[in-house]
Structures are given as structure tokens and as C-alpha cells.
């Protein structure tokens, strides 16, 4: 006899339900998210496996719970939450929801529609390491952007010149400047000679002369704060700088770690040969692409998963094409970032982008169209385990030869 298991993940307890081929519940329980709880779950599932094979349906395809089940040798089948949500009215007209009910729903969905879902194939250790570094860096970058925006908004209100003297308010030189001169009053005696000494002291590598930087500082509107408010603003600027400075340094360290991990990944030569893929962007693509070649059955499947292919709604005379919301958003960000930079190094990519603009698409839409075109190339290279070769890319080669 074959069984089907549904497991509804939660932060503290997990609801589990095991049913047979007739949808009769054979075992239902709640498992604590502890070492003892997960150990008991694995032992109980192993006892049931002696009676017959089964697979385990989950909504979340990652995490400690999933890792525990995979390492224990169980077949885990991820089912997208949108599918579960769309299926729920089949079991309850009132729209009720609870964890044990969702566990049964997952198990029964696996029983009736299991042929539609692929078992989870855990990535290699190289991919897992790269994914951990890349996603951690991306989260820190998001925090840096938020804090930098907060700092820039504050400076625009209390000291506009400090926000404009350097191109990036979160750059090391800008943060060092703000740590030394947090208010307009503290920089009242800043002259060209003193600024030049500051730039040398902090190894400024920009191309702007001290005179030009000082002109930017003085060209901005002057601050109109009273002494009390200026002192309070200076304290806030120091606080934001104190948080941003180590954050920027840690992001740089993670970039070096990503570069080292990327060199250890066997698929790195495939992605890094794409024009302007860089280091971090190539790592972002590989981290989300994974190394299971059977995961995507076609380039169109990959494009849909990456969110660079639109969704079509057609019924009778109605036909509409809309933006794809349900997708791997990290993969979409990685591919669209690559597509946007590639048009500066590939004549073919630039032509695809310009044609999209010519049809009336805005910049984000044109970049997604270009990313979808690159997905076909990437998928073929990935499947063949071959680096990108301009001579084999017929459209790009023909344009280059023209």
C-alpha cells in the first residue's frame, strides 16, 4: 500500500497528516520544532515506511525541517502555496483554514495530483554555500540602501551640501567625511587645503579635485537650523554613519567570499562567459539556478519561473497579457540585472532592448524582454555544460559580422 504525507510548516509546531490511497487518515499529529520533536517525527515516518512507500508534501521547499527530511532519505515534494490556496475551496465551502486541515489538504493533493509535481532535488554543497553567501549579501545590501536613503533624506533637510559632495552617500569616503563633519557648523572652517589633507588621509580614489568637491559643498542650499536642532541632527547623522560604516565593510568582505566560492562552483565558467555577468551577478544567477538540470524542462519553463515571461489570460474574445507576480523574485532580479548590463557589451542585446523600446515598452519591460531572450541562451549553455560562445549564438554572430 502507498501512503501520502502532508506537512504544514510553522515556526514552533508542524502539523503532519498521513493518509492512504483511499484518503483515509491513518496518522495525524503535531510535532514541535525542537531536536526531540524532529527526531521523533523521523522515527515515526520510518516506521510507516516499512508498511509502504510514501512522499511528503510541503509548501516551503527549504529550511531546517526540509533539510532534516531530505537527509533522512525521504522523498519531499514542494507544492506552491498558490496551488494550495486555489485548492482549498475543494475541501471547505466556508473557506475555513487551520494547520491540521492544511496538512490533510497537502497529503490529499499529493494523492490526487502527485504526477504534476516534481520531488525536491537538494542542491550540491557548492550551490548551497554560494546561495547562503549571495542571499545574505543581498539582504545586507537592502539594509544598506534603506539606511543610505534615510541618511540622504536627513542630509537634504539639515545639510544638503554633505549629501552632494560625493556621488554615493554610503561610500566609505562619504561616511568618513560625515563622521568628521556631521553638521554644517562643524565644517564651517573647511577649506581646500584641509579637504585635500582629509582626502589623502582616507585614500580617496575619485577623480574630483578638492576645489571641485568644495564647490559642490558650497553650491548646495545652506542650512537654516537653530543651534539646538543642528546639534540633534548631528547626533542622528553620527548614529546612521556608525551603523552604515561596518555594514558597508561587511558587504565588501562578503563580496570577496562570494568571489572565492564562485571559483569553486563547477558551473561558474558557464555563467561568467556571458557578457558583463561580473562576479556577484554571476553568483546570484547560479545560486538561484541550482545544479539540477531536470528542474526546468525548457527555456520557457525557466523564463516563467524567473518571472521574465508574462502571464496570458485568454477566454473567448478576451485576451490579456499581464505581469507575472508568482515567480522566484531573486532569480528575476539576477537575470534582469544581467540583461540590463549586457546591453552595454553586446550589440545583439542592445538591439533587442532598442526594438522593445521602439514598440512602446518602458525600461523595466524592455529589460525583461531582453532577459527572456538571454534565458534561451543561458538554458542551452546550462544544459550542454558549455560556456557562452558568440560564434554559436547565430543572431549575435550575424549582427557582429554585419
Helices, strands, pairings?
Elements: E1 3-8, E2 13-19, E3 25-32, H1 35-49, E4 54-58, H2 64-71, E5 75-78, H3 81-87, H4 99-113, H5 125-158, H6 160-164, H7 172-180, H8 192-201, H9 210-219, H10 227-264, H11 268-272, H12 280-289, H13 299-305, E6 311-315, E7 318-322, H14 329-342, H15 347-358, H16 363-384, H17 394-401
Parallel strand pairs: 1-4, 4-5
Antiparallel strand pairs: 1-2, 2-3, 6-7
Helix pairs in contact: 5-10, 5-12, 7-10, 12-14, 13-16, 14-16, 15-16
| Distance separating the two termini | 65 Å
Strand residues, percent: 5-15%
Mean pLDDT: 92
Order of helix and strand elements from N to C terminus: EEEHEHEHHHHHHHHHHHEEHHHH
* Rg calculated over all Cα atoms: 27 Å
User: Sheet with the most strands?
Assistant: 5 strands, mixed
Give a count of the beta strands, DSSP E runs of length 2 or more: 7
Shape call? globular
SS content category:
alpha/beta
Strand order of the largest sheet: 3-2-1-4-5
Bin the helical content. Answer: 55-70%
Given as residue ranges, the uncertain stretches (5+ residues, pLDDT < 50) are: none
The helix count comes to 17
